[in-house]
């Protein structure tokens, strides 16, 4: 891939179509869903490009990141199969570039009608009257459970015998003393050493 | 001229009763006081959103409602890594976080007011008994439950079982739990208090456009407004409580939406900004007389920050669940909420159903993750069931809200830093709860399960705690600060310890009780 930006001036950067395609591939390899069509991946990549447009640091990181992918791929990142591409991404996982791509993808890919449909989520429901008549309780592979507490029974608040136990098992050691909670240092039961 | 959006406008020079924050605590107090004929000014940092403004979309709604002003974090909790600038998930709008909340309303248990006595000394924890007990709060719990329309109590019918609950309850039954049900939950199963029954739309975190869920916005605010005694000023953020030569609070300085500073004279100030902004405001109000912050002679302001244990367990099945259909949190298992030190920790926890849409699921299920392992969690979306764990975390002096003077918000004020380390008791309880949750789902045939780390804190407590003695805490048993006689704290900051229960019912009960006390003190001119 040539330099991912169209113009030599980074401030007026517009990504080449090739760079955009690489980015789409990155998003798909990093967040693979067989059920999700191309549209959401393309929209997510475009969102990443827009955000990079607005932030110098992201712009620099993205340009650098796309170049390094090709270097690590020993050619064109887009030519790698899924597994090889995933390996390359694991190697850039800690970079600013990848962090930016990951965060932006998590926030946008899954806020998309088409992805919701693919995952089986139905989106807004109030305008359709909620689910009261549209299957809020249509699960039929388990019996209908009771919805009230067992009649005439009270949950014991404290386990029998708990009050006879001086204090719970967990002791962290250290910790500051305070007026109401004297710590170990003010205990006179320390082991005596000569 | 004040920016009141109600018919009532109180002069800025008139010494008013000023309530800061309009959430569970502040909103309840405003309603109770105005209904007793006492006029109040409510300063609310956020806008006045209405139910028509709410949207059925997780991020859009979050950006509309949430408190997004910068905050910082430190400590070994995972939040500091996963969400370093979002320690808490809170609302900045009229009605506060009750507009976002889901509605679970368990009460405290008797011993949860007395944990220092009952749990004994827990190394590293700053346990203290509350200066009040269940007997003091019981009548106010009744009133709060009636106000909020909690199901399962006072004749309110339970909500029906939705899909997520069917999996949860069947699993509970199979592992031998007994005390599971669809509530108590402050959302109408049938019409009540002028509000309709739930239509099970699944967008209760997003404000609940149907108004079936109790919130300050649907109930207390409109009622307070009707008295003609409520001066409500949205987009008015308090930045300092000032005091006179005698050390009594005498005014509140606040910023309007354009960043202009105003002064509202006060005869009484009630602070209810939730447990991060409340201590922040006290710390921002330091003077030569109160060098460590207002009402901070104990040094406890901002300390003992609690956020409940929390964690989420997802179960993945080979058949559809569609957990997102229906009420988000209408399901609770109480069996593990007892105190049973044989489990290896003090205190208890509840399991409650929870559901997220794909957008929030992707952001929260495994923060920072990507690749095929991550996407397979989302591929199972339709067949997922979810439960949230909420249990008592230990108060620790070093878990605290402080001012971070290296970072400023848009008004140029130091941002709050939230420091938190899990206590070993918290870790032991969370492990136990994760395992218990997995068993519930495995009992009904889960093919897999996943443990999700705590979300940004939705329950924020303890930073101005109640204590018998002034040296142990910030407020007395009425929520009145030990140091400043006409300054009250009216939100979850006053919790001496956190109990296992979700906090809002208790915040509302305490506010109703405090309102009676304040009204009485005003009548007898003791304030
Ligand atoms: C998603 C979600 C689900 C939840 N579910 C439950 C549940 O099921 N059960 C339960 O018990 N609890 C639940 N909660 C928690 C519940 O919302 C809180 O416990 C409760 O709202 C806290 O009440 P509060 O009065 O302390 O503060 P809030 O309700 O947060 O109100 C504080 C208000 O003060 C305003 N404010 C802050 N600082 C200033 C300032 N300086 N000047 C002016 N105004 C200011 C804020 O903008 C806000 O409106 C949930 C919370 C979330 C986020």
UniProtKB/TrEMBL annotation, chain A:
Report the superkingdom from the record: Bacteria
Which portions of the sequence form the region Disordered? 145-194
Q: Where is the composition biased (Polar residues)?
A: 177-187
This protein's name: Gluconate 2-dehydrogenase subunit 3 family protein
This chain's source organism reads: Nesterenkonia sedimenti
From TrEMBL, chain B:
List the InterPro entries hit by this protein, alphabetically: FAD/NAD-bd_sf, GMC_OxRdtase_N, GMC_OxRtase_C
Q: Where is the Glucose-methanol-choline oxidoreductase N-terminal domain?
A: 93-309
Query: Region Disordered: what ranges?
Result: 449-469
Signal peptide as annotated in the record: none
Origin, by domain of life? Bacteria
Q: Name one Pfam family in it.
A: GMC_oxred_N
MF terms from GO for this chain are:
flavin adenine dinucleotide binding; oxidoreductase activity, acting on CH-OH group of donors
- Keyword check for Coiled coil: no
Alphabetically ordered keywords of this record: FAD, Flavoprotein, Oxidoreductase
Extract the Gene3D superfamilies matched here: FAD/NAD(P)-binding domain (3.50.50.60)
- Residue limits of the Glucose-methanol-choline oxidoreductase C-terminal domain? 395-511
Q: State the similarity comment.
A: Belongs to the GMC oxidoreductase family.
- Tell me the protein's name: GMC family oxidoreductase
Species annotation: Nesterenkonia sedimenti
């Amino acid at each position: 891939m040539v330099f991912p930006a169209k113009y030599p001036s980074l401030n007026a950067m517009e990504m080449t179509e090739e760079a955009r395609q690489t980015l789409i591939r990155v998003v798909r390899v990093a967040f693979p869903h067989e059920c999700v069509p191309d549209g959401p991946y393309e929209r997510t990549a475009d969102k990443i490009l827009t955000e990079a447009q607005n932030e110098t640091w992201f712009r620099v990181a993205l340009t650098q990141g796309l170049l390094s992918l090709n270097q690590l791929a020993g050619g064109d990142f887009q030519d790698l199969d899924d597994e090889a591409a995933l390996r390359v991404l694991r190697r850039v996982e800690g970079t600013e570039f990848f962090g930016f791509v990951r965060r932006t993808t998590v926030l946008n890919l899954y806020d998309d009608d088409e992805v919701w449909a693919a995952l089986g989520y139905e989106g807004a429901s109030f305008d359709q009257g909620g689910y009261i008549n549209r299957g809020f309780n249509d699960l039929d592979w388990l019996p209908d459970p009771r919805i009230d507490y067992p009649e005439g029974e009270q949950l014991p608040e404290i386990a029998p015998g708990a009050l006879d136990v001086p204090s719970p098992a967990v002791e962290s050691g250290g910790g500051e003393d305070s007026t109401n909670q004297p710590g170990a240092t003010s205990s006179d039961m320390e082991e005596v050493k000569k | 001229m004040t920016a009141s959006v109600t018919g009532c406008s109180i002069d800025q020079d008139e010494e008013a009763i000023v309530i800061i924050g309009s959430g569970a605590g502040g909103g309840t107090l405003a309603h109770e006081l105005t209904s007793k004929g006492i006029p109040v000014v409510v300063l609310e940092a956020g806008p006045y959103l209405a139910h028509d403004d709410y949207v059925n979309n997780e991020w859009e709604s979050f950006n509309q409602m949430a408190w997004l002003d910068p905050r910082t974090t430190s400590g070994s909790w995972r939040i500091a890594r996963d969400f370093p600038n979002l320690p808490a998930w809170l609302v900045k709008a009229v009605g506060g976080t009750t507009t976002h909340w889901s509605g679970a309303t368990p009460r405290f248990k008797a011993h949860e007011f007395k944990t220092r006595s009952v749990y004994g000394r827990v190394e590293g924890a700053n346990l203290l008994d509350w200066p009040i007990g269940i007997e003091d709060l019981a009548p106010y719990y009744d009133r709060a439950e009636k106000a909020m329309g909690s199901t399962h109590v006072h004749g309110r019918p339970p909500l029906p079982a939705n899909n997520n609950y069917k999996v949860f309850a069947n699993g509970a039954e199979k592992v031998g739990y007994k005390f599971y049900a669809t509530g108590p939950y402050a959302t109408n199963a049938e019409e009540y208090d002028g509000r309709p029954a739930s239509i099970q739309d699944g967008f209760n975190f997003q404000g609940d456009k149907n108004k079936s869920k109790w919130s300050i916005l649907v109930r207390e605010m409109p009622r307070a407004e009707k008295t003609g005694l409520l001066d409500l000023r949205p987009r008015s953020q308090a930045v300092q409580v000032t005091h006179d030569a005698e050390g009594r609070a005498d005014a509140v300085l606040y910023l309007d939406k354009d960043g202009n500073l105003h002064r509202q004279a006060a005869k009484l100030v009630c602070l209810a900004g939730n447990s991060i902004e409340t201590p922040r405001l006290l710390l921002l109000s330091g003077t030569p007389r109160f060098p460590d912050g207002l009402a901070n002679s104990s040094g406890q302001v901002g300390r003992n920050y609690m956020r409940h244990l929390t964690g989420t367990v997802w179960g993945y099945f080979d058949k559809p669940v569609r957990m997102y259909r229906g009420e988000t949190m209408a399901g609770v298992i109480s069996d593990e909420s007892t105190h049973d030190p044989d489990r290896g920790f003090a205190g208890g926890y509840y399991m409650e159903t929870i559901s997220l849409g794909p957008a929030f699921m992707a952001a929260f299920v495994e923060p920072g993750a990507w690749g095929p392992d991550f996407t397979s969690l989302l591929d199972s979306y339709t067949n997922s069931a979810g439960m949230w764990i909420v249990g008592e975390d230990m108060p620790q002096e070093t878990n605290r809200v402080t001012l971070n003077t290296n970072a400023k918000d848009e008004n140029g004020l130091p941002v709050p830093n939230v420091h938190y380390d899990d206590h070993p008791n918290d870790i032991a309880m969370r492990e136990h709860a994760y395992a218990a949750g997995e068993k519930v789902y495995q009992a009904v045939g889960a093919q897999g399960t996943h443990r999700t780390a705590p979300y940004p804190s939705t329950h924020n407590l303890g930073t101005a705690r109640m204590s018998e003695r002034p040296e142990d805490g910030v407020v007395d048993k009425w929520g009145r600060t030990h140091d400043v006689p006409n300054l009250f704290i009216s939100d979850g900051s006053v919790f001496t310890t956190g109990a296992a229960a979700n906090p809002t019912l208790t915040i509302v009960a305490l506010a109703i009780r405090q309102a009676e006390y304040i009204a009485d003190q005003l009548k007898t001119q003791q304030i």
